[in-house]
Fold this protein.
Amino acid sequence: MSNTKYKYIYGPVPSWRLGSSLGIDLLSQDRKICTFDCFYCQLENFEEYTSQRKVYVPTKDVMAEINSLPDVKIDYFTFSGRGEPTLAKNLGEVISELRKIKKERIAVLTNSTLLQDKEVRKELALADYVALKLDACSRELLEKINRPAPKIKFDEIIKGIKIFRNNFSGTTALQMMFVDENEGYAEKFVELAREIAPDEVQINTPLRACGVKPLSKEKLYRIKELFSGLPMKIRCVYEAERKEVKAISKEDTVRRRGKNGA
Ligand code: SF4
């Protein structure tokens, strides 16, 4: 099945956070659709910001593709892809449909920008696992690293994350991408993690091909050490083990994750 062309599904990929993960892209456009334009993003073809939610791919088409899957063994179905998955207005609907036919756990990787929206929180709450991006601990760093759409504000992101965290019964992971620009602020990130109290903190640095230099192992381990007094699980990308998995469609996987997808 390795040459099969899938439009909305990619992988499975070996995820350092989720084991074997089959991606579902509810945006699936040629250009990136996002509320951020992170300077380390490996996705190309960014034309303009979007913060308006809409249905990009009909639920029935995504479900038809999922129903046509060969028998692949995976740990998670993961909503991610070419942009911010919560921009898809049918995210909740697809998760509910998926629940009816599949027993695997469901994850969503979000950049946390739309969490002030009650409807987005309600839809995310249908998942088992939500990874929340947090690369900035101030407005200035948000502008520098994530380059948000005009209406996206740092304080609102933090507020949305806290409300979601306090009401979600599944697993939350706070996902932090460390680069030269925010390395010196690691202690502020520790404070934010203490306040938000996720189930886990993931300390990352850009290892996929994106033109931004990753922090060294030594630097990332030093940052991890600062989090060691917190009660939640702290994971570092350099310590991660990856499962051996074979993609059912390599071309579609590369389109969403770059050639060095990790
Ligand atoms: S949030 Fe993700 S998809 Fe959007 S710009 Fe940042 S890295 Fe790229």
Notes: Residues 9-177+242-257 form a domain with the TIM Barrel fold (CATH 3.20.20.70).
